[in-house]
Every structure is written in structure tokens, then in C-alpha cells.
Specification:
Blueprint: H1 14-41, H2 45-51, H3 63-70, H4 72-101
Length: about 110
């Protein structure tokens, strides 16, 4: 019987830390517009009109959120249509690619 030795993990070098820092910055920059949209949704409408979008608004209000939730049923129907179109399109694409790869049905 052979014994399996545990492999030691190598210490992270300077390149790993630099790459991690770059990926962290990229993640933060990608998340910032999403955060700005959320903050804009809870900012007072008059403040948005006078000061514009800001990460630190002077006045908050939930009127924007309540107006979106007022049309809850339409929102769910719209999301349902979006999800259905996405899933159907993906399934159709997979089927089209499968036929292109395997022109004859596989034999089992």
C-alpha cells in the first residue's frame, strides 16, 4: 500500500497580493453603480432634482420605493416574462449548438 502525503500549500507571493488588490478594486468599481442606483431610489425626489445623484444624499425618502411597490403585480409579471425569455432563449441556443456539434443522434 502506498501512503499519500499531504501537499503543503505554497505561501502567497507578491504577485498574488497584487492580483488580489487589482481584483478587489475591480469588484468595488463594478459594485459602485449598483450602489448608486439603490441610494438614488431612497433619496428624496427634490434633492435628486436640485443636487443630482450622490453617494451621500442630504435627504432620504422611501417614496420612490413605495411607488415601485404600488405596481407589485405588474412588476412580478414583468420579471416573469424576462426570466421566461432568458431561459427559453438559453435552452434554444443550447439545443441549436448541440445539433451543430452532434448532427446525428448519439447512440447509447
Amino acid at each position: 500500500m502506498s501512503s499519500i502525503k499531504a501537499k503543503r500549500r505554497k505561501k502567497a507571493g507578491a504577485g498574488q497580493y497584487i492580483l488580489s488588490a487589482i481584483l478587489l478594486l475591480y469588484t468595488i468599481f463594478c459594485a459602485m453603480p449598483i450602489l448608486l442606483v439603490f441610494i438614488g431610489a431612497v433619496t428624496d425626489e427634490k434633492t435628486l432634482a436640485t443636487e443630482g445623484f450622490s453617494y451621500f444624499p442630504s435627504k432620504f425618502s422611501l417614496d420612490g420605493v413605495s411607488s415601485v411597490l404600488k405596481y407589485g403585480k405588474q412588476l412580478f409579471v414583468s420579471y416573469g416574462v424576462t426570466i421566461f425569455v432568458t431561459v427559453a432563449g438559453t435552452a434554444g441556443t443550447f439545443r441549436y449548438e448541440y445539433v451543430g456539434i452532434f448532427p446525428e443522434p448519439p447512440r447509447f
